[in-house]
Amino acid sequence: xxxxxxxxxxxxxxxxxxxxxxxxxxxxxxxxxxxxxxxxxxxxxxxxxxxxxxxxxxxxxxxxxxxxxxxxxxxxxxxxxxxxxxxxxxxxxxxxxxxxxxxxxxxxxxxxxxxxx
Length: 117
Description:
single chain, three-stranded antiparallel β-sheet, mainly alpha
C-alpha cells in the first residue's frame, strides 16, 4: 500500500521525536508509532526514512525482536526509543532498558494470552 504524505523529512523526524517524547511509556513498537504518525499525515515510508536518519544520527535506537511463534511470522516486532538519559544513566543504556521493558511486557502479555494449537 502506497501512502501519500503531506510532510517533508524534517517534519517527519520532528513528529517521530515528539511522539516518542510525549508519552510516559518511552519505547514504542514501530507499528504503534506508525499509527500515531498517520494522524499527523506522516506515512509509513516517511516514518521509515525518518527513523533511519534518526538512528544514524544517534537520536533513536531501534531493536529488532523475534518470537518463534508461527503466528508472528512476518510481523514487525521492532521497538524504538529516544536515546536520552533517564535518571542520569547512560543514554544508550537508558534506551536499551526502555526498549527491553516494552518488549518484555508485550511478550509476557502475549504468551500469557496466546495458545498455539
